[in-house]
Design a protein that fits this description.
The chain is an all-alpha fold and 128 residues long. Helices cover 88% and strands 0% of the residues. The chain is built from five helices and no strands. Helix 1 packs antiparallel against helix 2, helix 2 crosses helix 3 and helix 4 runs antiparallel to helix 5. The radius of gyration is 29 Å and the shape is elongated.
């Protein structure tokens, strides 16, 4: 067996493994989209699952052609909702209002923990 015959065997093996992994990725993406879709009834979901189970390649192609645009829109809506939720959480945790910072600085100044100069510096930062 020569090097080039062995090389092409390895090449085709990698190609088929890549194609199989891509097929599985699309299959799981479609199944995930099916179960996340609120507008599709349970009967239609069951019918799609049966179609994907018995004729997987054709089922994936038909699903992507028939519902691909909605699949992308649902994915973008889900990503937008996740981003908004994480941004809201970060804003609620990371930032405090200027009045809260000044109130805390006043309490620290009154307790003698910070000086009047430090209080003025904190106050000017909070108001900027």
């Amino acid at each position: 067996m020569s090097f080039w015959e062995n090389f092409w065997d390895i090449f085709w093996w990698f190609f088929f493994v890549y194609a199989f992994v891509a097929f599985l990725w699309v299959l799981f993406a479609v199944i995930g989209d099916l179960f996340r879709d609120d507008k599709l009834s349970g009967w239609w979901k069951a019918l799609w699952i049966l179609f994907l189970a018995f004729v997987p390649f054709l089922g994936l192609l038909v699903y992507l052609i028939a519902r691909g645009k909605g699949m992308a829109e649902r994915s973008m809506d889900r990503a937008r909702a996740h981003r908004e939720a994480s941004d809201a959480y970060i804003r609620s945790v990371a930032t405090t209002s200027p009045s809260e910072e000044i109130t805390k600085a006043t309490a620290l100044r009154d307790s003698g923990t910070i000086s009047a100069d430090e209080f003025e510096r904190i106050k000017s930062k909070a108001l900027v």
